[in-house]
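Case study.
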Amino acid sequence: MSCHPESRPYRSGKPVRSGGNASGERAVLVALAGQPNVGKSTVFNLLTGLDQHVGNWPGKTVERKEGTFTFNGTTYRLVDLPGTYSLTANSAEEVVAREFIVRERPDVVMALVDAAILERSLYLVAELLSLPAPVVVGLNMIDVAEQEGVRIAPEVLQAALGVPVVAMVAARNVGVRELVEAVDGLARGEVPYAPHPPQIRADHQRVLEEIAGLIAGCAPAPYPLEWVALKLLEGDGEITRMVQECMPGERWEQVHEVLRAHDDALVAVAGGRYEWIGRTIRAAVARPRAGQIGLTERLDRWAAHPVWGLLLLAGVLGLIFWLTYTVGTPLQGLLDTYVVGTVAGLARAALSGAPLWLAGLVVDGAIGGVGAVLTFLPILVIFFAVMAVLEDAGYMARAAYVMDGFMHLMGLHGKSFLPLFLGFGCNVPAVLGTRVIESRRARLLTILLAPLVPCTARMAVIAFLAPAFFGSAATLVSWGLLLLALAVLALSGVLINKTLFRGRRAAFIMELPLYHLPNWHTIGLLVWQRSLAFVKKAGTLILAVSVVVWALSVLPGGKVETSFLARLGRWLEPAGRWMGFDWRLVVALLTGFIAKENSIATLGVLFGTGAGAGLAATLAATYPAATGLAFLVVQMLFVPCVATVAVIRQETGGWRWTLFSLGFLLVVSWAAGVGVFWLATLLGLS
Amino acid sequence: MARSDLAAGLARDGVVALSEVRAGERGVVAALDGGRGLLSRMASLGFTPGAEVTVVQNFRRGPLIAQVRGARIALGRGEAGKVMVYRKSPHEVW
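After joint prediction, the assembly is written out as follows.
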């Protein structure tokens, strides 16, 4: 975020009316803040409807949602800040949230809190009140709190906080209008604003003044000096780095000396905020002695149990597979035959008078590429929907919890499990799904491992080729291949973690939110946005690669056998010969880059048999079983399809890790292929 | 080093790691151990000295669930080992 909006007067007590009037000079800027699971997206969707834009924060793989709504003749620009527990820089999300508030200076910050977890949710509000932006508190899920036996008086809380507090049940659209009225009142300056932010404890006040004196002139631009001093005391990595870079070494030594003498201040400052929260809510909350066991506790006795929880998870995963195969795969087939096939047929007919290369470019290159994107969609939609439902209902955290022990074996923790599991359907949602993992290291490792999970397309290739080479033993071979892929995944996890990440493992601390019925509106919008983003971003790359591969396969002569692709295959043949491959198997692997199923179609063209039973017989007659097995192994572990590569690039933020991933998979698949080939030859499979 | 000594000292005063507290038992956070990032995350989630903690599930291996400041938090065994608590019996009123 390098843009600096026009500077506006610092508002300490009274808000400044800043545009958004009938003449429409500027929309009023409102930020939506809150901890995870407080219902932020529900409120955001209710207010903006379909009038929203989803993207990334500049330079970060953190989702940025922005939308507009009108109220009382004023247009509001609503920006959804990432859900964070605090504003101390533990992750990119926290940095994004506080930078937005300090640099973009929203006119009002809507802070949502969960009434059922009032104390903990107010922690973020305690931090927000120390920043220069007026806050309105939305006391959401007041109904859940009442079910749990907690009664909260919003007007008492409002008096204690000194900021407007609105009770609401966003899931039933209760109180949202009142929340907007409060925002409107503040933005117009009609409502007085006199917050009671947490006071710093007396013993910290002296230290803070000392630090503030030492760093004067070096507090990063728009941040208040006292706030910077406090963040230094809290050990905030980002602020520490900024201040350290600004001053000469010996001066930093002095600051460092003070900080080291108070290295317990981090916990004490957080404790101080909780003490403030305790005092603030004391009069507003009536809590009859908690005795009853809530729904969440009863469900968790099963869902989070080490044995029953795993069985339940197995059931859920089985259901996902069932959906994929009974709905997704047939839909893919229908789309391919009727939509892609029909369009290709029409295009071919329309271009019958045009030069052959043009028809080829349009039909095989462009429509082939678009078709690949399109046929991805049914599986993607299913997986996005499943992710969204499990996340919204609160189950996702339980799945991560029960799988934590197992994932430790690979240097990961529970949160990596579901994204990796989604890879069985398609690697694309697997890579996108890693956004639930906060630690950058754990997230990167999960992304690097995701392509090793065999997706439905890879399994389809195996399902065709295994019977061709191994007849009745095909099922056994397929299971063996699956186990091999998972073993390679686990080994790679251990290896990458030990070497690149030096065995450090991200801490496993995760909130288990209360269970609740999923909000279909929120889920529908999420699936729509994710699918659209995939089509837009990955789609263009897939189309480009598809056209390039098509061109390579027909140029210069018009025939695959003499094309650049075949030359490339012949050039790479020496690497394949270690496993008994000839150039045709190499080319088949290369064309699988667009979509894994292409490997079979390519072999069909190269052997002139089409992709049917004839091909199976020809392959079995051409290659020894050991080569067939090696080909299956390489196919299983090879570089993923271009769609996956596109999202890996998007999610790792550049080509560096994408190229690492490609190189790593090339080496691993080649080594495994050679190993299996020689083992099979020794065992007499030739 | 200093922190581990602190933990050892606390252990002598009837303070135990959260991972040693059985399901259904309650405790009060005495101190936190660990690196800056971990401390900061745990503190913002509510694990600060004086906070009341109830262990909801603990099977002696793998992660555990604790309730703190009204929220249910899953902690890895390693992370739970860094939260030192004064243990209280479930029936004690305080």
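Observations recorded in class. The beta strands of chain A are 28-34, 52-56, 63-71, 74-80, 108-114, 135-140, 151-152, 165-167, 285-286, 509-511. The first helix of chain A runs from residue 40 to 48. We will return to this complex in the next lecture.
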